[in-house]
Amino acid sequence: MATLNHNYEKLPGSYLFSTVGKKVRKYETEHPGAKVIRLGIGDVTQPIAPEIITALHKAVDEMGREESFRGYAPDLGYGFLRETIAEKDYRDHGCKVSADEIFVSDGAKGDCGNIQEIFGTDNVIAVQDPVYPVYVDSNVMAGRTGKYDAVRQMFEGVVYMPCTRENGFLPELPKEDPDLIYLCFPNNPTGAAMKKEQLQKWVDYAVSHKAVILFDAAYEAYIREPGVPHSIYECEGAKECAIEFRSFSKTAGFTGLRLGFTVVPKELRTEGVSVRDLWARRHGTKYNGAPYIIQRAGEAVYSESGQKQIRDQISWYMGNAGIISEGLKKAGYEVSGGVNAPYIWMKTPGDMTSWEFFDYLLEKANVVGTPGSGFGPHGEHYFRLTAFGNRENTIEAISRIQAL
Ligand code: PLP
Predict the structure, then answer these.
(1) What is the structure's pLDDT at 16?
(2) Is residue 92 predicted with pLDDT exceeding 80?
(3) Mutate to test the pocket of ligand 1, among 249, 287, 345, 370 (most ligand atoms within 8 A of CB)
(4) Which of 3, 42, 51, 379 could form a disulfide with 130 if both were Cys (CB 3.0 to 4.6 A apart)?
(5) Residues 218 and 337 in one domain
(6) 187 pLDDT exceeds 90?
(7) Which atom of ligand 1 lies at the shortest distance from residue 255's CA?
(8) 10 pLDDT exceeds 80?
């Protein structure tokens, strides 16, 4: 008789964004005339930059000719893309990362969710609270946690590292001695970013505790302030203790095209074994490579004009972030983020819970955001807005909130 992986039953309710989606659809059905503005889900809205579109067309044409047709891509990614990433994202920024430490994939979500597979089920994980929910959920599915405590909104056996207004939304080093530490900077949902000296302390901690840091840098391209590291490998010793995830989704609008990569340094060894080799084995077994066409598009992101075009796009989104932050502050809200990340993190008024505020904004202003409690217990009484909307809608949404 087939049985199920009962760890899945520990997961409470449905995924955050599907709950948000259901509520919004219900509201729209009941109020057909309402012009609802979505500043909730972190999906981009700007079209793919022209330089990347040209590369896509060229690669499509190559696929139509026998002499340039490509079948299966190499499991770990085409050399042209891995070399370009190693040079432009790392070596040009003083980080010694080589092409064979880069694993190209169809995005960071899969990589962040799958990486836990190569670690023992007895590893204790630590996560920022609040944070992108994939880290905890993927470990729940793998049986690395106890049951869900609905009152505390926490899984047993997970080290939650509170990120609060008091600590500037930056976690403190854990006392519990976890084995796998997920760090996400710039952070989704709080928008907080760590300075290099602060991140160095985490690297030193991981090296001395023989822990592994799983560093999600999906929003690296949004960093504006000097002194904020774009890669964990800017810190000394990080190649011995850290894996880094990157994504083309928010950097270049690839949420629909799908492309990302993970860096697993050769120096990273656990129990004397190369973690890089294990990840290569896993990737080779379960993954047949990102499409050639998309990898060529990824390469175009690094060209001179590609870089200019995507930088302009990111600045444009960050213009929205400024409008949201300033507008909310004027309306008297307590706001953070939006400086090194496309996310604005606001305190809900009074004692309102995150979901109460969600309903209030949807009903009174027809604006959709994301309830902070969906990202972890310390996200309660907070709310996330994103800078990915179009300009007109962003301005309209903020003026509606101001009018409340
Ligand atoms: N990591 C973080 C922190 C994210 O917020 C997201 C997307 O929202 C991802 C990873 C997923 O990125 P991708 O689209 O490359 O799968």
Answers:
(1) 78
(2) yes
(3) 249
(4) 379
(5) no
(6) yes
(7) 14
(8) yes
Q: Looking at the structure, tell me whether residues 315 and 296 fall in a common domain.
A: no
Q: Which two tokens stand for residue 277?
A: 């080799």
184 in contact with ligand 1, CB cutoff 6 A: yes
- Domain final residue, candidates 256, 288, 304: 304
Q: Which of 251, 275, 304 is the last residue of a domain?
A: 304
- Please give the average per-residue pLDDT across 346-374, as a whole number: 96
Cβ-count burial 311-337 (b if 16+ within 10 Å, e if not) = eebbeebbebbebbbebbeebebebbb
Using a 10 angstrom Cβ sphere, with 0-12 exposed, 13-18 middle and 19 or more buried, the burial of residue 56 is middle
The answer as to whether 9 is a domain residue is no
pTM of the predicted model over 0.70: yes
Minimum-distance ligand 1 atom for the alpha carbon of 187: 3
Cβ of 178 below 6 Å from ligand 1: no
Give the whole-angstrom CA distance, residue 191 versus residue 344.
6
CATH number of the domain bearing residue 197:
3.40.640.10
Question: Residue 151 domain-assigned?
Answer: yes
State the pairing for strand pair 367-368/343-347.
unpaired
Question: What backbone phi and psi angles, to 5 degrees, belong to 254?
Answer: -90, 20
Q: Which atom of ligand 1 is closest in space to residue 249's alpha carbon?
A: 14
Residue 126 and residue 217 in one domain: yes
CA of 218 to the centre of ligand 1 (A): 6
Mean pLDDT of 134-163: 96
Structural domain including 299 reads 53-304
Ligand 1: centre distance to CA 42 (Å): 9
CA angle (99, 103, 105) in 5-degree steps: 140
**Residue 40, both tokens:** 């909730």
Note whether residue 325 is domain-resident: yes
Same domain, 360 and 297: no
Ligand 1 contacts CB of residue 249 (under 6 A): yes
Q: Residue 105: CB within 6 Å of ligand 1?
A: no
State the pLDDT confidence band at 70, using cuts at 50, 70 and 90.
very high
Test site for ligand 1: of 43, 109, 115, most ligand atoms within 8 A of the Cβ: 109
- 249 Cα to the center of ligand 1, angstroms: 7
Q: Which CATH number belongs to the domain containing residue 389 in this structure?
A: 3.90.1150.10
